[in-house]
Amino acid sequence: MGLWWRKGFLAAAFVTAMLAATLFAPQAPARETYAAYVARINAGLPGGASYRDDLEQVLRAAANAYRAGKGLKPLAPANETLAAAARAHAADMMQNGFVGHTSSSGAGFESRMRALHPGVMMLPRMAENAARERSKGAADEAKARKLFQQWVNSGSHARTLRSRDYVSVATGVVEQDGKLFAVQIFEGPPLKGNMFGTGGAVATPKTETSGSGGGLY
């Protein structure tokens, strides 16, 4: 066997082995998108937990009543995508025992919002208020208003509520064993020029407080 033939044979064998290793190697699982994460959480609440659309309406009405008292225009209900994201984050907080703007998967507020606006270079003005109410008693309208009062009593959260930057709000409320976890995501009008820039998503400052079984972020 000539040297040149042996070299060609070895090279061909090496290429074949590499192709086989590539074809049959175990593939790393695809990273879950945030949209899939939202859908998964919303479809799989643990036993005893439920979304409270009645209390979502209470919080949305409370936000608009608060704005009306300041001479501001009401906020329209946000689109279904943002509403699902608000619910999913409320459920994430409930299931993982936290109140904040970073999901249990490690996605911060701006990262979460960017995932909901694929292909958009520059986000509209956005913000998020989050809170929980764990005081004793039924998870009713009175408890929802008690939770909302946490936002009113916090300077940074109240500024978000009365900001003129926003035109719509998504509200998510999840309840388990009488405890409420709630999220409101505020969104401004779409930006007219959206070809350049890096984005303008703004989360509320991290000023956590607690009291009477509550907590906000």
What does this structure look like?
The chain is α+β, with helices and mostly antiparallel strands. The chain is built from seven helices and six strands. Strands 1, 2, 3, 4, 5 and 6 form a six-stranded mixed beta sheet that branches. A hairpin with a 2-residue loop joins strand 4 and strand 5. Helix 2 packs across helix 4. The longest helix is centred in the N-terminal third of the chain and has 22 residues.
Largest sheet: 6 strands, mixed
Order of helices and strands: HHEHEHHEHHEEE
Pick out the low-confidence regions: 3-11, 195-213
Count of separate DSSP helical elements: 7
Total strand segments: 6
Provide a quick synopsis of the model.
By secondary structure, the chain is α+β, with helices and mostly antiparallel strands. The chain contains seven helices and six strands; from the N terminus they run H-H-E-H-E-H-H-E-H-H-E-E-E.
